[in-house]
Automatic annotation (TrEMBL):
It catalyses: ATP + protein L-histidine = ADP + protein N-phospho-L-histidine. Residues 402-468 form the PAS domain. Gene3D superfamilies: 1.10.287.130, 2.10.70.100, PAS domain. InterPro entries: HisK_dim/P_dom, HisK_dim/P_sf, PAC, PAS, PAS-assoc_C, PAS-like_dom_sf, PAS_4, PAS_fold_3. Residues 94-146, 220-272 form the PAC domain. It is an enzyme of class 2 (transferase). It holds the Pfam family PAS_3. PROSITE patterns: PAC, PAS. Keywords: Kinase, Phosphoprotein, Transferase. The keyword Lyase does not apply. Its EC number is 2.7.13.3. Transmembrane segments: none annotated. This is histidine kinase.
Length: 600
């Protein structure tokens, strides 16, 4: 028993993942296989299901297209080739029934459906399809005919619309579900009417297409809108097949149609979301890309594709290696290291500074790497995001430079900037405190303003701190002089301006900006003292000057009368000279006294 269980085990490397196992089981169960043709390389690929149907060994791959057609029954081969040609040239759906001859000589009937993948020029690149072994179905055809009556009963309860239409488009029969979809209250309202009259004129060609193909013996499906008898518009998905008589002549068309209005709305919503996402992703200068475990490009936005195309010298495409040697070996090895870190399971980011190969300008970027994992948590690739932070770095460097300039001004300036609490406690003191008052920043931060304030100035400062709290935010009080004790014990006069920034979330206190004005105060005091002394000298000497001056004025008035004799006049002039000498002596004395008062 254990041996049998062991034999049934699937080798770990035989099937890559659970999905492949399920696909193989489905193909075996349904007797189907999938295939694709690469028209560029002229190669044909079959799944294991196809080989099983043809009784071939899968190791016989690869098989080319010409060899593939050799398995088609000679009587059906030309039709199969022509159908493939018509699908590629006219764009009709690939839908083919034909016979195949297996390697053992068995004849099997198969049904094949496929879709064509085209490039931007509408040129076919690849066709991907499936086919199913319908040999048993064909053999059971007659048996199914006998069950027609029973199936008709079943169709009456079918939730999807089932209808029979004559070759000229007249409705022959429709089940209750279909009547409900077209809003007919009874079969008589619909039977005998043109089905085309229910189809939205904009979609009429799609309905006509599957109807005409069914008349040609081709099963096909399409979507179109109908407008019900009561005006309701619905999206329908319909599959049409021919109905034949016992002679194989097509007598009518059978269609199975279901309401897909909700599905279409969901699809349209997803399309809008996808387009919006693409617009957002492609509208940024940031680079977004993903790669597989072999460093091959999976997907990328326009910004990354442009950069990669520039480095490659050709348009970048899915599958290209994202490791590029054109920027040098160091660049190559660095990015290889990043990718290997991410593919090992690490999520991280790096900072890159470089000269853009496109603009030749310096760029700064943050690059994020995140592993991509499948349902089994295995790493299958890497998602990368490169954020352009050039402007941010420029502003940051500008801010750093500005901060350095500000700090240099603050540290080397003659002004001290302090932030005080409302009680006068220092919250911040600029380094210039050492130059102005001799204290270190640390010492000043542990002191209160009142710790080194002159006792005579304390009341005035208390009043100023109260006043500044009452003025509007950001306003300042007029400057004021007061005395502060220097670290060496001397008293220094400072001129202070305080500003209310208590409510500012970045400051949260009273800003005190002050500088040393001791010499200026001393000079002003000296000038005031000198002025007082000069006033005293001027007041005292003015009385002394008046006596000789009065004599001079009296003698001059006497001479001007002309009543004096020659001798009297000569004596008066002698007195005048003596008074003038006396006045000159007094003036010299005033000058000497004032010179002793005014210090040069």
């Amino acid at each position: 028993m254990k041996k049998n269980q062991s034999e049934k085990k699937v080798p770990p490397n035989a099937i890559k993942n659970k999905q492949e196992l399920i696909l193989r089981q489905m193909e075996t169960l349904a007797k189907i296989g999938h295939w694709d043709v690469d028209f560029v390389n002229q190669t044909l690929h079959w799944s294991e299901g196809v080989f099983h149907i043809l009784e071939l060994d899968p190791s016989s791959m690869p098989i080319n297209l010409e060899t593939g057609f050799l398995f088609v029954h000679p009587d059906d081969r030309e039709r199969a080739i022509e159908h493939m040609k018509e699908v590629l040239e006219t764009g009709i759906d690939y839908d083919l029934e034909c016979r195949l001859i297996t390697t053992s000589g068995k004849i099997k009937s198969i049904r094949s459906l496929a879709d064509v993948i085209r490039n931007e020029k509408n040129e076919p690149l690849q066709i991907v399809g499936i086919f199913q072994d319908i040999t048993e179905q064909r053999e059971a055809y007659e048996t199914l005919k006998q069950q027609e009556l029973r199936l008709s009963t079943i169709l009456q309860s079918e939730p999807e619309c089932v209808k029979v239409v004559s070759p000229d488009g007249i409705l022959v029969e429709m089940n209750p579900a279909g009547l409900q979809m077209i809003e007919a209250d009874s079969p008589e309202e619909a039977v005998g009417q043109k089905v085309e009259n229910l189809v939205n004129p904009l979609d009429l060609k799609y309905y006509q297409s599957i109807h005409n193909r069914a008349l040609q013996g081709i099963k096909s499906s399409t979507r179109f809108r109908i407008i019900g008898l009561k005006g309701t518009e619905r999206w329908m998905e319909s599959t049409a097949v021919p109905l034949t008589n016992q002679s194989g002549e097509i007598m009518s068309v059978l269609s199975v149609t279901r309401d897909i209005s909700d599905k279409v709305k969901s699809e349209e919503k997803l399309i809008r979301i996808k387009r919006n996402q693409e617009a957002l992703i492609n509208g940024t200068s940031d680079l977004i890309w993903s790669l597989d475990s072999k460093f091959r490009l999976i997907a990328a936005n326009k910004a990354f594709s442009d950069v990669m195309s520039f480095l490659l010298g050709t348009a970048a495409k899915e599958g290209d290696s994202v490791l590029i040697m054109s920027q040098g070996e160091a660049f190559y090895e660095k990015w290889k290291g990043y990718y290997e870190r991410g593919l090992s399971g690490e999520s991280f980011k790096t900072y890159e500074r470089f000269i853009s190969p496109i603009t030749q300008l310096e760029e700064h970027r943050e690059v994020f790497f995140n592993p991509i994992r499948n349902a089994e948590n295995q790493i299958t690739g890497l998602a990368c995001f490169s954020k352009d932070i050039t402007d941010l770095m420029a502003k940051r460097m500008e801010l750093v430079a500005s901060e350095k300039r500000y700090r240099a001004l603050v540290e080397n300036g003659v002004d001290v900037i302090a932030i005080l609490s409302t009680e006068g406690k220092a919250k911040y003191v600029s380094p210039s405190i050492t130059k102005v008052l001799g204290y270190s920043e640390l010492d000043a931060m542990h002191m209160n303003l009142f710790d080194f304030l002159h006792p005579d100035d304390v009341p005035k400062i208390i009043k100023r701190l109260e006043e500044v709290r009452s003025i509007p935010q950001g306003n300042s009080l007029p400057s004021h002089n007061f005395r502060i004790k220097h670290q060496n014990g001397s008293w220094r006069w400072v001129e202070s301006t305080i500003t209310n920034l208590i409510e500012d979330e970045n400051i949260g206190g009273i800003v005190d900006n002050f500088h040393d004005v001791t010499e200026r105060v001393f000079q002003i005091t000296a000038i005031q003292t000198q002025n007082e002394k000069l006033k005293a000298i001027a007041w005292t000497q003015s009385h002394v000057v008046r006596n000789p001056l009065a004599k001079i004025m009296g003698i001059v008035d006497l001479i001007k009368t002309g009543a004096l004799s020659h001798e009297e006049e000569r004596q008066s002039l002698d007195h005048l000279i003596e008074s003038a000498k006396e006045l000159d002596s007094i003036i010299q004395d005033i000058v000497l006294k004032s010179q002793r008062v005014i210090v040069p």
